[in-house]
Amino acid sequence: MVDQVETLYLIASFLFILGLRGLTAAHTARRGLILAELGMVFAIWGTVIHPDIMAHLEIAGFFQTYKWILLTFFIGSAIGIAISALIPMTRMPERIALSHAFGGLAAALVGVSEYYREQVIAGHMDHTTMAAIGFEVLFGGLTFTGSLMAFGKLSGLIPGRNITWPLQNQSNILMFGGTFVLLVLVTIDPSNQVLFYAVAAMPLLLGILFVAPIGGADMPVVITLLNSYAGLAASATGFALDNNVLIIAGAIDGASGFILSVVMSKAMNRSFRNVLFGAFGKVDEEDAAMAAAGGERVQEASVGDAAMLLSGAGSVIVCPGYGMAVAQAQHVVGELAEILEANGTQVRYAIHPVAGRMPGHMNVLLAEAKIPYTSLMELEEINEDFKNTDVALVVGANDVVNPAAKHNPASSIYGMPVLNADLARSCIVLKRSMRPGFAGIENELFFAPNTVLTFGDAKDTLEKVVEALR
Amino acid sequence: MLEIFLGLYIFMLAAFVGYGVIKGVPALLHTPLMAFTNAISGISLVGSLVAAGAHYNNVSTVLGAIAVLCATINVVGGFWITDRMLRMFKKQDPKADAAGDA
Q1: Which of A116-120, A154-158, A167-171, A338-342 has the highest mean pLDDT?
Q2: What are the pLDDT digits (tens) for A399-450?
Q3: Average pLDDT, stretch A248-276?
Q4: Record: contact B36-A23, CB cut-off 8 A
Q5: Among partner residues A30, A246, A364, which is closest to B83 by beta-carbon distance?
Q6: pLDDT of residue A276
Q7: C-beta atoms of B32 and A364 within 8 A
Q8: Element (H, E) at A67
């Protein structure tokens, strides 16, 4: 029986890695997904014939053994499918944050359950298993509440702004260190139940406290880090249960989250430490309009002016940002592109790595609007082309097109790679409003002589532009 | 003792393989990647299934059952939404492509 289980797990692991490889190109991605799904079937199959379950099957019969598994499996599937089929693409960051929360909770619960079984009931637990379970509940709990906080901030249930309090970083670090000390102590003495439940409970508090100070615009880094933690929690579960497929899947998830968070931090030119402990007054991109700049004036363009600029352009690069997601403007961007392309205009899209609230957010939205992925360009691919482009159309992006990052050392985003929207022959910026006096980062692009601003809801404005062009 | 080292080797190698493979995933697919790895790591389902199915004791069974619920939401939901996203990614002219793309 053990041989069968391990064989099935081996096949599952193989299929997971093969499936992941499929994701390295868009045209093989769905095939990869199917392989991974197949791998999951093998992994579950291997598990339902786990020796401990089979032992119970012999005494209690099929129904008694599998009733909880089947019941929760069907309810879970129904919930999972309902959420995944119904959620709009614009809310994908919330969906991902929520699934990290579920993943963390599952790992933490399995950890507590294992501890209860081996230590509380059976009365013996070795130190290595204890350490693994300790890490499991630590990362699981941290991921659970941290992700719920991220979900709350992304969905607006909790203020997205950074919540700060005195000695915040010091107390957070102290508490994290304290939890780690408890983890070491309980590893030395697994029979100390109070210690264990403290190790299980503290991370729940820590997750909340760690994410509270981090503002909305920094969410991409938080989500990817939590992704990494969710993976580590799964891996730790694998160590606790001597289950290799769990170790492998968790390690892959952890590596993925790690890579993505490095990509995100680099794209913001900030270190992890700065994102996690910085909490500098960074506010939502869209809100971070300019403080009323003394003397400088912006040029306002009507919908008609914008339409005229676009219809006369030979090439257009669209620079989308979180504002496009908020306004749900991706479909009308697609419509506009269709009209312009029919007109002979080349339309491409410049996707900044941190545009939006999670990695790849903008790509998914534009794909939803039926824009072929071959026109979605990464920053490095397209940044040199701006200077030969007639119009850069900025839809709800702010910091990622701020030229101050290139040449103003005083700016808080100095050094961050940005899209060269300022180098296009002309630049149209769609903005909700000027919001004078809001303490944000001033965007030089808005004051540039070749920039015009069209105020209003991005979706609204674009619909009017499309109408004008028809 | 040997077992834990075996586990650590597996973890280390899997992390390197994961790192190497995921490095090659284009930014275009980063959101599907997150949903995908999330679905895979929902495999903590495996641990929860044992806890729920082996009926060691009532506490383990209840905790395990809740864990199966959470993990299933991730596995089934994660694969579902990854597929939903990947179906949207089209190369050129979506109308001509829609029929041929399986």
Answers
A1: A338-342
A2: 889 898 888 887 778 888 999 999 999 999 998 876 543 335 678 888 888 9
A3: 86
A4: yes
A5: A30
A6: 66
A7: yes
A8: helix A51-86
DSSP A383: G
Find how far residue A114's CA is from the centre of its chain: 30
Q: Which residues pair with A347 in a beta bridge?
A: A316
Task: Provide the whole-model pTM.
Answer: 0.87
Locate tokens 């702004």: which residue?
A: A161
Task: In whole angstroms, give the CA distance from residue A367 to residue A283.
Answer: 28
Tell me the longest C-alpha to C-alpha distance in chain B.
59
Between CA A445 and CA A419 the distance in angstroms is: 11
Q: Is A390 among the catalytic positions? A: no
Contacting residues for A274 by C-beta, under 8 A, at least 6 apart: none
Per-residue pLDDT at A294? 44
Range A104-127 average pLDDT: 88
Band the pLDDT of A314: cuts 50, 70, 90: very high
Contact criterion met (CB < 8 Å) for B28 and A376:
yes
Query: Looking at A218, A284, A399, A422, which residue is catalytic?
Result: A399
The pLDDT value recorded for residue A49 is 86
* Domain spans, chain B: 42-86
Considering only the beta carbons, identify the residue of A92, A106, A257 that sits closest to B31.
Answer: A92
**Chain B closest-CA separation from residue A382 CA (Å):** 14
What are the chain B neighbours of A32 within 8 Å (beta carbons)? 36
- A360-391 tens-digit pLDDT: 999 999 999 999 999 999 999 999 999 999 99
C-alpha radius of gyration, chain A, whole number: 25
| Structure-token pair, residue B28 | 């275009």
The structural domains of chain A, with segments of one domain joined by +, span 104-282, 303-469
Q: What is the ipTM of this complex?
A: 0.88
Chain A closest CA to B62's CA: distance in Å? 9
C-alpha dihedral over A325, A328, A331, A336, to 10 degrees? -90
Residue entry with tokens 């692009």: A445
Determine whether the interchain pair B91/A26 forms a contact, defined as Cβ–Cβ distance below 8 Å: yes
Total residue count of chain B as it appears in this document: 102
- HSE value, Cβ hemisphere, 13 Å, CA-based, for B54: 21
Provide, as residue numbers in chain B, all residues whose Cβ is less than 8 Å from the Cβ of A240.
47
Instruction: Name the fold adopted by A303-469.
Output: Rossmann fold (3.40.50)
pLDDT digits (tens, 9 = 90+) for A225-259: 999 999 999 999 999 888 889 999 999 999 999 99
**What strands, in cross-sheet order, belong to the sheet with A376-378?**
A376-378, A346-351, A315-320, A391-395, A426-431, A451-455
Q: How would you label A389-416 residue by residue, b for 16+ Cβ within 10 Å and e otherwise?
A: bbbbbbbbbbbbbbbbbbeeeebebeeb
CA A326 to chain B, closest CA, distance in angstroms equals 17
A228 burial level (CB within 10 Å; 0-12, 13-18, 19+): buried
Ramachandran region, residue B101 (left: φ > 0; alpha: ψ -120 to 50; beta: rest): beta
- Per DSSP, helices labelled H in B1-102 are 2-23, 30-41, 44-53, 58-88, 94-100
* Residue A65 pLDDT exceeds 90: no
Q: Is the pLDDT assigned to residue A293 strictly greater than 80?
A: no
For β-strands A391-395 and A376-378, DSSP reports them as unpaired
